[in-house]
Design a protein that fits this description.
mainly alpha, Rossmann fold, six-stranded mixed β-sheet, elongated, binds iron/sulfur cluster
Length: about 450
């Protein structure tokens, strides 16, 4: 403990000296994990020890990322923490600001997977990290560097985390102040005030001292439930390699072969309500490797395993909405949703491109009590849809078959050679009359 006290004093002195040394804003990255919490706690203590005039030297930005697919318990924890921190900042009128960074709706996990049919991410096609985490963070950081000469990012990375982390810290080209250049963002520098702290130091610190905004006991409980140590802090941490193997990762993550964090939580009776999420995540992984669930062509027309079939995407959305409804009935969602209204609208737009002229995403949502405000952009107006429905009814043609045929025709819209369309349509009709569900 004495040694830790010395480390705390040393970090406090360094932070104070660096804070007062120039006016470049600080960005403290906060993932909700133990290391970033420790750094934020230390920064806050240092800041509160400054005089009011010293506090105005620079602004501190506390930034966290919300992928939209965080594990519900973690999302709950992080958003509660951010609220506590924001309330504290407001109450004390501190020169600090909390920012929650989110991906654009056109680049969200559900828009890309359910809307466009991207296969669930894996090690070779890991499309998620860049869109969900890196881009929103980079955009934010760039906007700060544009308005300031430079910025300093304070990260909670430590050599003690792993050999790989120790190597990457050792390789840094640090200046005399211990800052290194951010690899992607010009004029951004990186500083790791607790790089020499051990795991024990971090845990001892967090269990011995309450943060100015509240206790750490809720975070410790979360750590007790799972296993593994890393934070999925890649968004704001250029040295992170741990995304996808983390407690604070996405609940849909299929980049790891098994979601150990969720699996560990499911050992507790009280967390059984998360099982449908776990099963759904496993389905996403299984379907990815099942070529019957994927289109036989890529979007550019190249023959290869392509996006998920539209029918599979519809199955995903239906299941997601059903799970959400179930979790709401258990009182587990609060005001949160598994998928946002904006994402459902965006998914509908994507599906329209793929021939879903009857706006299934919106209909599905309405049936599960998601009353989405949606300005129809469909190819068929209400009148046209009614006309087709009547025509089918009068001529005894099943509407679903008509929809399948129209969708098939639409799928050939960019192809020069359309000869195969006839056999495809024949197959659709045959399947339909044999009671086989068409996979389009
Ligand atoms: S946790 Fe998994 S799904 Fe989420 S961004 Fe990282 S690799 Fe992608």
């Amino acid at each position: 403990m004495i040694k830790l006290k010395e480390k705390i004093t040393t970090v406090n002195n360094i932070l104070k000296k660096e804070f007062l040394a120039d006016s470049r804003p600080w960005v403290v990255t906060f993932s909700g994990g133990k290391d970033s919490t420790t750094v934020l706690h230390l920064v806050m203590e240092m800041f509160l020890g400054l005089s009011k005039s010293q506090q105005t030297v620079k602004k501190i930005y506390i930034v966290s990322s919300d992928t939209g697919v965080e594990m519900p318990v973690i999302e709950d924890y992080t958003s509660n923490k951010l609220t506590q921190i924001s309330n504290f900042i407001e109450k004390e009128n501190l020169n600090m600001e909390v920012n929650l960074l989110k991906p654009k709706v056109t680049e969200s996990f559900w828009t890309l997977l359910v809307g466009k049919g991207y296969p669930s991410p894996n090690q070779t096609f890991r499309w998620c990290t860049d869109r969900l985490k890196i881009k929103p963070a980079t955009n934010f950081l760039k906007s700060l560097t544009e308005n300031n000469e430079s910025i300093l990012m304070l990260l909670g990375v430590r050599s003690d985390e792993s050999q790989a982390r120790a190597d990457s810290i050792a390789k840094r080209n640090e200046n005399h102040r211990g800052f290194s250049k951010h690899t992607e963002i010009p004029n951004a520098f990186v500083f790791s005030p607790i790089k020499d702290w051990t795991n024990t130091d971090v845990w001892t610190y967090l269990s011995s001292y309450s943060a100015p905004w509240g206790e750490h006991s809720d975070m410790m409980k979360l750590y007790d439930k799972g296993s593994g140590e890393a934070d999925c802090n890649i968004a704001l941490n250029p040295e992170s390699t741990s995304c996808g193997k983390t407690r604070f990762g996405c609940w849909v993550c299929t980049v790891v072969s098994q979601d150990k964090s969720m699996a560990n939580m499911l050992r507790n009776d009280s967390d059984q309500w998360m099982r449908p999420l776990h099963d759904f995540r496993n389905k996403l992984e299984k379907y990815r490797y099942d070529h019957t669930k994927r289109q036989p062509r890529r979007r550019n027309g190249q023959k290869s395993v392509g996006p998920f079939l539209l029918s599979v995407r519809k199955e995903f959305l239906q299941e997601l909405l059903t799970i959400e409804q179930h979790l709401i009935s258990l009182g587990k969602m609060g005001s949160k949703k598994l998928i946002s209204d904006e994402e459902i609208v965006q998914i509908q737009k994507e599906w329209l491109h793929d021939g879903d002229f009857f706006e299934t995403a919106i209909t599905m949502s309405h049936k599960t009590n998601r009353l989405i405000d949606y300005n129809s952009v469909k190819s068929f107006s209400g009148d046209e849809k009614k006309f087709i429905e009547n025509l089918c009814q009068e001529n005894n043609i099943p509407l679903k078959l008509m929809e399948d045929l129209m969708q098939k025709e639409h799928s050939y819209r960019h192809q020069i050679k359309r000869t195969k369309i006839f056999s495809d349509m024949e197959k659709l009709v045959e399947n339909f009359s044999n009671g086989v569900v068409n996979e389009i």
